[in-house]
């Protein structure tokens, strides 16, 4: 008893289509998973920078009785090495509390900023929209604010200390976008 093999062995079109469908589903799942891991890895840079600022500010407060918005004074040296975020520090209540903000550059993902707020009651870390974070950093030019603000590590115009190269967009108190540009 011998079996005869047909000469037309191979895959049918339906079998090939099923394999392609399965491969495309697996590739899509891998891409989504990869994107999530990359976004998480990018946000770690901001988390590490804010944790270091919190540590240094706590030490500075223990020695001087107030917080500082000057990165050099507290000993923060990571600012020039940050590749995806700009770090800002804002003092509140006369230096008895502070906010450290890590704003992602416009060309990086995710577009959410991290805000570390240190008050007498404790320290909180939250994610907010980048446009809102820029609005936290500075008010409109005519507004008077009692908080001190520093955004060191960012290129600026040395002749005009409040001007940044390329202009700056902030959200004013009325919720409208406020554009500030400085001429050289």
Structural commentary:
With 184 residues, this protein is α+β, with helices and mostly antiparallel strands. It has one domain: Fructose-1,6-Bisphosphatase, Chain A, domain 1, CATH 3.30.540. The protein contains three helices and seven strands; from the N terminus they run H-H-E-E-E-E-H-E-E-E. It has helices at residues 13-64, 71-74, 130-137, and strands at 85-92, 97-104, 112-119, 122-129, 148-150, 168-171, 177-180. The strands form two sheets. Strands 4-3-2-1-5 form a five-stranded antiparallel β-sheet. Strand 2 (97-104) and strand 3 (112-119) form a beta hairpin. The protein is rod-shaped, with a radius of gyration of 26 Å. The relative contact order is 0.11.
Helix/strand layout:
Layout: H1 13-64, H2 71-74, E1 85-92, E2 97-104, E3 112-119, E4 122-129, H3 130-137, E5 148-150, E6 168-171, E7 177-180
Antiparallel strand pairs: 1-2, 1-5, 2-3, 3-4, 6-7
